[in-house]
Amino acid sequence: MIPVPGFEGRRVAVFGLGRSGITAARALQAGGATPILWDDGVSGRMQAEAEGFVVEDLTRADWSGFAALVLSPGAPLTHPKPHWTVERAHAAGVPVIGDVELFARALHALPEGRRPRVVAITGTNGKSTTTALIGWVLKSTGLSVHIGGNIGIGVLALPAPTPDAVYVIEVSSYQLDLTTTFAPDVAILTNISPDHLDRHGGMEGYVAAKQRIFQTQGDAALALVGVDEIWGRGIAADLRGRGRRVCAVSTLSVIPGADAQRSEPGIQTAAHVTEAWVQGSGTPPRNDGIEAAPGSLTSNGQLVADLSTARSLPGRHNAQNAAFAYAAARALGVSHEAAVEGLLTFPGLAHRMEAVGRLGSVRFINDSKGTNADAARQALASYPSVFWIAGGKAKEGGIDSLRDLFPHVAKAYLIGEAADAFSVTLADTPHIVAHTMERAVELAAADAAAAGGEQVVLLSPACASFDQFPDFEVRGEAFRAAVLALGAKPEPAA
Description:
With 494 residues, the chain is of the alpha/beta class. It has 16 helices and 22 strands. It has helices at 19-30, 42-50, 84-92, 99-108, 127-140, 173-176, 197-200, 203-211, 230-241, 270-279, 315-331, 336-345, 373-380, 419-426, 437-451, 472-485, and strands at residues 11-15, 34-38, 54-55, 66-71, 96-97, 117-122, 144-149, 165-170, 186-189, 222-226, 246-250, 289-293, 296-299, 302-306, 354-359, 362-366, 386-391, 393-394, 409-415, 431-435, 455-459, 463-464. The protein has a 9-stranded mixed β-sheet, sandwiched between helices. β12 and β13 form a beta hairpin. The longest helix is centred in the middle third of the chain and has 17 residues, at 315-331. The radius of gyration is 23 Å and the shape is globular.
């Protein structure tokens, strides 16, 4: 756990007693604060009382006595309307913060020479894989690495900081909205596409939330920005205009905004650029970047890394994730050779393009983390032909944006609430409404085997899971169980 100082002897309101709320209360208490906890659900309050915390109805509390409100990222800060605790806090002049901000303050309270380094990752898609990949690469070199945040362990539940440690933190737009001093040494924005717009009041608010990952970085910090979309390009241009150190990552043939024909400033290789940054020498180039293509990373036409043997990094999107991981590792002083070796040995992230089994010539791929159409696009584009399991609780727009990839679909098997709507969208593309995961896996496996040759059954739902499952992890495990129940053999680790 990471104790949070700065609130000694003061009352701090904590609303929302899920993983982040309870952990924040523990960290505040360890730092000398008196956390006052509340949750709309009885079970959360009972857990807090069982741990000996003060549980107080915040609807009746005197808010003038609070030093801060620590808000669960699940509670709306601004849209569709501010949560009632936010309104109470604002009326009393109480700052509203989250667990990532507490983490930032805990590190900032340390003497400068004792602070660990922080890599933070956000984005609409790819952030969990990039987080896990960076953690793997850094750990493989012997560094002391702690991975958490929006993935796995809550950030304040990670081990207490030591000067040699590196924290690799996934942060969501909800968490970033609750930060004011968070200043990672390496900040990564993988990509941006419309998502969670109801919580941010539209695309402008969503982009602004993502951009906050760069807001308080110091001059020596590195910003890694995915620039395939107009929003990323705008953010990269803004950061460069303010003299910040920026490395663009693109899956296009030329880094947008860079002139590959010019030698000055041109596109520098990531190895050259980050070596200069690590050593603290030289002026950072303004149009440096990495081009990510399936199986390779290049810069200025020169090969940076051959990923053709990296079994857990198929497709263009995983090449982009690898580019972020490579550049982050190099910025932290990892050698070129060690960074590439880490990429090639990455075992993959559970529920994200995870090979879970093989039955004869049929491979089963678990991409349960593909909870929106853009994420499913990356998975569908990775294979020339798939037997696709999709559906769940649909996001806005459904799968309309995937029509250009329907030729990749040998047949679709639709589950959950979205099944009927997706059936209409698929139209003449072969499909069947299977309703349940077990039935979808059974039908897809039989059809893939009948097709002959090497085939892929892909779960990439393009939907949230909440209609049939508590979360995407449980959905992915249901897929794995159904696959193994057919007699499929787990695939060996990469």
